Amino acid sequence: TQQSPPRRTASNTSTDGKTTSDRAMSPLLITPQETLTFSVQQSNSESLPQMIRMSNNREVQVAYKVKTTAPEHYRVKPTVGLVEPGQEVEVSVQLTPGSAVTASRDRFLVQCTPITSPFKGDITEYWRSVEQGKVTEHRLRCKVVMNGSPIEEKVDHLMNNSIHMTSPAPNVADRLSAIENKLKLIEQKTEATHRQTRNTSIIVQIFLLVSLVYVAYLFYQEYNLLQESVAADGSADQSNPEL
Questions:
Q1: How far apart (Å, rounded) are the C-alpha atoms in residues 40 and 148?
Q2: pTM of the model
Q3: CA 114, CA 150: separation in Å to the nearest integer?
Q4: What pLDDT, in 10s, does the model give residues 53-108?
Q5: How many alpha carbons lie under 13 Å from residue 168 in its C-beta half-sphere?
Q6: Do 28 and 62 meet the contact criterion of CB atoms below 8 Å apart?
Q7: What is residue 231's three-state secondary structure?
Q8: Would you say the C-alpha torsion 214, 217, 221, 222 has a positive or negative sign?
């Protein structure tokens, strides 16, 4: 009889490439599971803090570490820590001003590993000795919402309006040439400023040197006058001895 092909077990795969079975292996229940959503009022304003919640349903401690592809765009507190058995911790993540437009390209990585024996030391130091094979990773995408809509839609809308409201732009070559000329002009002005600063510094140094020489000369003259005065007083005393 003909054998049927082996059956495949169904597996739900999320958009970040992590399967349901992979998530079940994680020692922590992490919320949100896929996307960190930040809300801003303007594209250059900072967001309200968002929370990454980690629940430990195990009977042992679990160490965690939070990383991001763009550390300069976020304030993360704390970045490492311990979750006690049956406890939940929160990590605060805040988008810094001026980072909203490109935040959708950023990613977060939550690493966690169970600790089989009670640990009370420096958790940062502990992570330096953890074997990579014992670490479970959970990835999160980033999304920014401005006034209820994804910020990418807002930016596209503003750019389209700007194109329609302005006159036809010159071709790319002309624009690049204009930018290059401006950069050259800025470079020339900067070089001129540097030269002027160097010349001013040299003049100041010469003035200080001349002043120092002049002061030394005055001290020398004063010293000579004092010596002559002392010598004159000595001569007067010798020519008029006391009776």
A1: 9
A2: 0.55
A3: 37
A4: 999 999 999 999 999 999 999 999 999 999 999 999 999 999 999 888 889 999 99
A5: 2
A6: yes
A7: helix
A8: positive
